[in-house]
Write a structure and sequence with these properties.
single chain, 0% helix, 7-stranded mixed β-sheet, 4-stranded antiparallel β-sheet, 11 strands
Length: 125
């Protein structure tokens, strides 16, 4: 059974940095897609960064140049380095995994059957 557990969230001032981690168990890193999504209350969950097993990455326009997604295959961990944080980055962040997707699906919520429980990120001005 695939389990994803996020960590590393918290509160930071605008301009600061945070690094999110997603520890995966029961998930085999052969051919995969993994991504970070975020969601505000009452809003749709949006994809912010995704990575495929061939190391292809994709970012939403709102975080491009500030966020970096990477994987630590040895430790079965997905990472999201978030720099130059803005108040509008405040949200619940979720890790997601799939055993295969196309590049066009990488940031689509419906492409992912496995989800973490979410972790809060709060950026104050």
């Amino acid at each position: 059974q695939v389990q994803l557990v996020e960590s590393g969230g918290g509160s930071v001032r605008a301009g600061g940095s945070l690094r999110l981690s997603c520890a995966a168990s029961g998930y085999t890193y052969t051919k995969y897609c993994m991504a970070w999504f975020r969601q505000l209350p009452g809003q749709e969950r949006e994809g912010v960064a995704g990575i495929m097993s061939d190391t292809y990455t994709k970012y939403s326009e709102s975080v491009k140049g500030r966020f970096t997604i990477s994987k630590d295959v040895a430790n079965d961990t997905l990472l999201l380095q978030m720099n130059s944080l803005k108040p509008e980055d405040t949200a619940m962040y979720y890790c997601a995994a799939s055993y295969g997707c196309s590049t066009s699906d990488l940031l689509r919520r419906n492409a992912y059957p496995y989800w973490g429980q979410g972790i809060q990120v709060t950026v104050s001005s």
